[in-house]
Amino acid sequence: MIKKLLCSIFLFAHIFSSILFAGTTGKISGKIIDAESKEPLPGVNVVVEGTSLGAATDINGFYMINNIPPGTYVLNITAVGYQKKQIVNVKIAVDFTTKIDAEISSQAITTQTVVIEAKTPLIRTDLTSSQTTVDASQIETLPVESVTQILTLQAGITQGAGGELHIRGGRSNEIQYTVNGISIANPFDFTKTVQIATNAIQELSVVSGTFNAEYGNALSGIVNTVTKEGGEKFKGHVSFYTGDFVSSRDDIFDNIDDFNPFSDRVSEFTLGGPIPFSDRMLSFFVSGRLDESEGYLYGKKEHTIYDSVYINNNDPNDIRVSSTGDGNWLAMNPSREISGTAKITFKPITAMKINFDVLYSKGWSKGYSHDFKYVPESNYNYYEEGQMYSIELRHAIDQKTFYTLRGFYNFNDYKQFQFPLVDASGNAVDYYAGKGFNGLYPSSDYQPDHKLVRPTTYTFYFGGTRNYQAYERTNTFGGKLDFTSQLSNNHELKFGLEGKTHKLELESFTVLRDSVRYLKPYIPPTTTAYHDLYAGDNAKKPVEFSAYIQDKIEYENFIMNLGVRYDYFYSKAKYSVNTTYPSPNDPSLPTYVDKSTLLTEATAKHQISPRLGISFPITDRGIIHFSYGHFFQMPPFQYLYTNPEFKSSLSSGDPLYGNANLNPEKTVTYELGLQQQLMDDLAFNITGYFKDVKDLLATQTIRVSGEKTYQKYVNKDYGNIKGVTFSLTKRRTQESNFGVTLDYTFQVSEGNDVDADAFFIDLSSGRQSEKVVIFLPWDQSHNLNSTVSFGGESWNVSLVGRIGTGLPYTPTNTGKQVSLRTNSDRKPIQTKVDLFAEKSFTMFDLDLVIFFKVFNLFDTLNERYVYEDTGRATYTLQLMEGGAKSNNELAAKIPGIHTSEEYFRIPSYYSAPRE
Question: CB count, 10 Å around CB of 164?
């Protein structure tokens, strides 16, 4: 069904192809010859129109233009005594060389310019490792709403059950996200600090192979985003569209038949151009997006948080349920996010450009919790705010040498709670980690734990609240220098330095009530295991430094990227060195143990990473590449600083301790690939790869004696990933307005068991767990993505299809003591088709576009999670057990208790229905 309708108004009648600069660049090179004699022509001027970029050919007719931001350009070729030639639609991609050769004629010289349209190459001669690029024009014609959806269309990228991305079998936190050459990784977990809307993107590139030495702190891949910049003319765009989820699967998704055309709303705008009265030295670009959704998972308010259930332990039939809710359906996975970018560009002189960039995003969401389906207000609120500020100075010393200097600041603030803290008057307070509780209190709405009870484990909660709260805040300051010089026609030398300092603050606690009379909720002191805090003067302040040097060697039949990288990291914290007595703050610690010897300062980490990539042609339309590299990445910092005060007693629990002395994780990657152009509009790319992964983060269980155990983070995980990707591209042309892309991935991702007990050691006996290799939870053996597009001058239709084998799960035999291997079976196959169609026209000197998008066009029911006894989300053998039957007997005679069948019908086990 048609879901969304947009009327998109382009401000100003004539759309100018503006120049879009960003933090990374590409280059143009080629050879100019005489059209009649075929001899090379020296002294020919080759200029990128609308910029100060250009070059003159040498004695061999060769030219090269560096430092060109990604985008589409016009190239002007002029020489005394020759006819002027103009080449349009010249596309520049980050880190690549665009080859533009030309012939110019000295005969019949006129003032008329010869115009030729450049053809974007389907194969790249300087591709030495796997990389795909998507530009703004492609994004506009695809049914995608986010960077994540764009990435899932690329070969080698899969999605886990929770929606997280994996590049070539790696973990989701092994991806480095950069914007304009600056990392936006949140140091806590390596997710994105700030979200960026697709309307602000000029180019998005994904390096999934052996990336060059300039990129670091990533094991699996680099996602590099370049944002738009204002040009020489004003350009603007405003859009609004709305819709809802539409599905016939009301047996799975409650309230899905209540269609509301304004349930999902998206508003967007962009505006850019020159700043008036600046003599074209200043330009700007701003963008904004507001995305609001009610989601597709609903709960029914049969109970309020104050309700509960009374259970008479002496009489199993004496159960009384309090139900004071109004019975309305409430959204349980709604979300709202606002994001925006702003850029001011200053060009004080011809050879210099300064960019001031701001990225901002702020979001709120709730996550569906099935146990609280009939108390939907007992759901956590998640808030996240991200900011990035940067200044970039790019200076061309001459036509062959330039440098880029950047300074940046990243900020992220994350909060999780059901109710915010309040002041003495009961007003909500915007709290953050380490702010302090002077005059602040937990909300009186927090209920005691005894309300979170139920007569059986096969039914829902009847009231109560979720009393955990978490606050995280990060500040990152950094600077970066990149220097590039075209030493000769064959050598481009690049080196750089980068330094970063972080400030990590965390606070988490569980709101408690007096255990005797449940009078007043209170926040437990930080000396207890219920309250973790490091903030202010006790914040964690790790530092990072890196340097690299690389040489891009380019000959007619041979291209090599050769580089080496150095990385330094220092956690500036202490870690436990005594395996038997890990914590000096353990109350059960024997008196003869010297507490001062149990912790010591972590050491700094140093790594050297060599990188090599080679490309050479085997035919005039075929190119082979090989690459090899070492890659290092520190584990997410949250694992270094978990429980930093080493609280909790071995005698009363199973505490988990962080490890500030963790080593970097390491991957060695090999890749071999072939690009082959079959026709002018048809080409394929096939690549094989192997990754050897060591020292990955793991959780180790250590038994000290008897029942005394604890867990700690260690570098123990290992794995290997091998696979093949195949991409086929049929480009749309003037002769054939029909395009197709096909991306297929086969891979096997294996590693050690991911359970904490997979690394078990008993100190009293010396016994250790055996090493077992299993399929990793995100291993998807076969994955196929395809896009089909067709249309005319004023209309376009695009279809995106995906199909993939099921992810692994661990099967169990209900009621039988049978040990089955971890991740030894597969979930059902996953399929999805999305649709985008648009029609453009002009009215009142405005360009208008009407379009609609449909996600999950055929309303496919994909099972993300399954019951381990059946391998399906649709049913479980637990319904045959006595507990489930007893619950159904209670449901038949006691109002408010729901059946076991309904309890085991979990809508969040499935992907989203048609939208």
Answer: 15
Q: Would you say residue 66 lies in a domain?
A: no
Cα 73 from chain centre? 30
| Residue 704 host element (H or E) | strand 682-705
Close Cβ partners of 394 (under 8 Å, ≥ 6 residues apart):
21, 67, 352, 353, 354, 355, 402, 403, 404
Q: Is 95 exposed, middle or buried (0-12, 13-18, 19+ CB in 10 A)?
A: buried
Rounded distance between C-alpha atoms, residue 698 and residue 703, angstroms:
16
Pair 124, 675: CB distance under 8 Å? yes
Residues 434-469 pLDDT 10s: 888 888 999 999 998 888 888 888 999 999 999 999
What CATH code is carried by the domain that includes residue 658?
A: 2.40.170.20
Q: Cα(321)–Cα(311) distance, rounded to whole angstroms? A: 9
Range of the domain at 401: 235-909
Element (H, E) at 240: strand 235-243
Average confidence (pLDDT) over 319-323: 89
Contact 746, 723 (CB under 8 A): yes
Would you say residue 9 has pLDDT above 70?
A: no
Give me the amino acid identity at 707.
Answer: E
> Is residue 899 included in any domain, yes or no?
yes
Instruction: Determine contact, residues 691/722, Cβ cutoff 8 Å.
Output: yes
Give the separation between CA 34 and CA 105, rounded to whole angstroms: 6
Q: Could you tell me if residue 176 is inside a domain?
A: no
Q: How many other C-beta atoms lie within 10 A of the C-beta of residue 819? A: 7
Report how far residue 849's alpha carbon sits from residue 8's, in angstroms, rounded to the nearest whole number: 5
The count of structural domains within the chain is 1
Reported as a pLDDT band with limits 50, 70 and 90, residue 664 is very high
How many C-beta neighbours within 10 Å does residue 713 have? 22
Q: What is the pLDDT of residues 840-884, one digit of tens each?
A: 888 888 888 898 899 999 999 999 999 999 999 999 999 998 889
Q: Name the nearest CA neighbour of 150 among 745, 140, 239, 160.
A: 140
Is the Cβ–Cβ distance between 360 and 386 less than 8 Å?
A: yes
pLDDT tens figures, 88-113: 888 888 888 888 999 888 865 556 67
What is the signed CA dihedral for 756, 757, 763, 767, rounded to 10 degrees?
-140
Q: Which two tokens stand for residue 34?
A: 């005489």
3-class secondary-structure state, position 882: helix
Q: Residue 417 falls within a domain, yes or no? A: yes
Strands (DSSP E) contained in 634-681 are: 656-657, 665-679
Check: CB of residue 785 under 8 Å from CB of residue 802: yes
Distance of CA 532 to the CA centre of its chain: 28
